[in-house]
């Protein structure tokens, strides 16, 4: 496989699989429980076909769009995903360099294995960054992180709201997920913020294979007891709390309904990301593409609506835009790129997606992203017949 030329994201995924150890591969790729949502995120895109228009002079195509007042080369950015150095030593820095070369924005996980300052430095002002935020029981941990991101030049906070508790990913428990000792979570400053367990403590935390694993023996074992995600997070007080500690744009990541879209608008958030955490949280929730139309209708143009989950091809980006998304984000693909060939692998992934998207726009008769509309799609019903939107 590794000797073959990688010509699609599917081939990149296959090539990356050979490069990762079992713990990393399964941590990156899996979803929660039966993985119904993980699979449906991808399948949803196949429930639409394209309705191309012809004779539209597509000799010049503009794939670009705007995000945070800056041009991005096409509507596809890099979603925050934890611990990229499990894939490759260049980690989030490699991803950031690739994104800067491709002209797209980056979301950085709270749990990155490169420091936020190092990551932002790679963009040299050419691209923008969002810091993804987990709100911990010790709010000070989150506050310090946000203030540091503001100083480092991030443009937005992505408040992840689908994780009051982490979903149950069987692989993490079975593989006794643990951050290898040579890696560190570099966005945390105080020793008690994240847990670095000794061998004995790891056992006490569920690492003893002879015994059933303790609750929280998955990836959340990197958090110390007493400072896990704050499950009391709520609309009534916490957008306001976040607003009181930062001037950055506040985006809510993890919305799947019109009701929550309306609440996001009412609470003055700057944008939302339709997301189910890549099928890693509540299994059985709707695919993000299926959730998108009701959220777009509820937002009614008042705030930008972005989407992540299951995007693997240029045509997927096109379909999400046709259903009203302003921009798409990818989580696993950059990790696969990194595992395959470091920064160059991420660049390859972004190039493939860019070229596929551009070709799709051309062949569907769209000269600019603004021209992509619901009229370019038709839905495949369960009985196989087609229905206009
Ligand atoms: C290995 C991995 C780690 C992730 N870590 C985070 C994280 O730290 N914070 C967060 O908000 N989302 C996290 N996500 C979710 C992504 O931001 C995104 O929602 C998801 O990956 C999109 O689905 P896709 O992988 O199909 O593109 C993670 C996803 C993966 C696969
Ligand atoms: C405690 C780390 C959580 C990372 C994450 O969000 C994920 O694995 O999906």
From TrEMBL:
FMN binds at residues 80-82, 109, 160, 253, 275, 308-312, 331-332. Keywords: Flavoprotein, FMN, Oxidoreductase. GO terms for molecular function: FMN binding; oxidoreductase activity. Its cofactor is FMN. Pfam families: FMN_dh (PF01070). The active site is at residue 277. CDD domains: alpha_hydroxyacid_oxid_FMN (cd02809). Glyoxylate binds at residues 27, 132, 134, 169, 277, 280. SUPFAM superfamilies: FMN-linked oxidoreductases. Residues 1-382 form the FMN hydroxy acid dehydrogenase domain. Gene3D superfamilies: Aldolase class I. One of its GO terms (cellular component) is cytoplasm. Belongs to the FMN-dependent alpha-hydroxy acid dehydrogenase family. This is Oxidase FUB9.
């Amino acid at each position: 496989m590794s000797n073959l030329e990688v010509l699609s994201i599917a081939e990149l995924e296959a090539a990356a699989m050979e490069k990762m150890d079992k713990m990393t591969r399964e941590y990156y790729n899996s979803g929660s429980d039966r993985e119904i949502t993980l699979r449906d995120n991808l399948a949803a895109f196949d429930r639409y076909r394209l309705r191309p228009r012809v004779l539209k002079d597509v000799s010049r195509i503009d794939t670009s769009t705007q995000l945070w007042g800056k041009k991005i080369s096409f509507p596809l950015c890099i979603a925050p995903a934890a611990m990229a150095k499990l894939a490759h030593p260049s980690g989030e820095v490699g991803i950031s360099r690739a994104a800067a070369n491709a002209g797209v924005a980056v979301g950085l996980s709270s749990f990155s294995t490169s420091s936020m300052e190092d990551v932002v430095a790679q963009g040299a002002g050419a691209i923008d960054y969002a810091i993804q935020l987990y709100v911990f029981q010790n709010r000070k941990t989150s506050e310090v992180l946000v203030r540091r991101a503001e100083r480092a030049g991030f443009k937005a906070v992505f408040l992840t709201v689908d994780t009051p508790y982490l979903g149950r990913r069987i692989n993490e428990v079975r593989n006794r997920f643990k951050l290898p000792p040579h890696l560190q979570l570099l966005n945390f400053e105080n020793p008690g913020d994240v847990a670095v367990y000794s061998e004995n403590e790891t056992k006490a935390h569920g690492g003893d294979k002879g015994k059933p694993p303790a609750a929280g023996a998955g990836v959340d074992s990197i958090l110390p007891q007493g400072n896990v995600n704050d499950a009391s997070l709520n609309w009534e007080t916490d957008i306001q709390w976040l607003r009181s500690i930062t001037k950055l744009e506040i985006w809510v990541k993890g919305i799947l309904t019109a009701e929550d879209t309306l609440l996001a608008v009412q609470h003055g958030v700057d944008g939302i990301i339709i997301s189910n955490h890549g099928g890693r949280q509540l299994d059985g929730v709707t695919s993000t593409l299926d959730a998108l139309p009701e959220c777009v209708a509820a937002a009614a143009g008042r705030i930008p609506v972005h989407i992540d989950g299951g995007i693997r091809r240029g045509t997927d980006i096109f379909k999400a835009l046709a259903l009203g998304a302003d921009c798409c984000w990818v989580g696993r693909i950059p990790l696969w790129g990194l595992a395959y060939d470091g920064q160059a692998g991420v660049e390859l992934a972004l190039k493939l997606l860019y070229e596929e998207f551009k070709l799709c726009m051309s062949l569907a008769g769209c000269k600019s992203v603004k021209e992509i509309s619901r009229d370019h799609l038709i839905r495949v019903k369960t009985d196989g017949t087609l229905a206009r939107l």
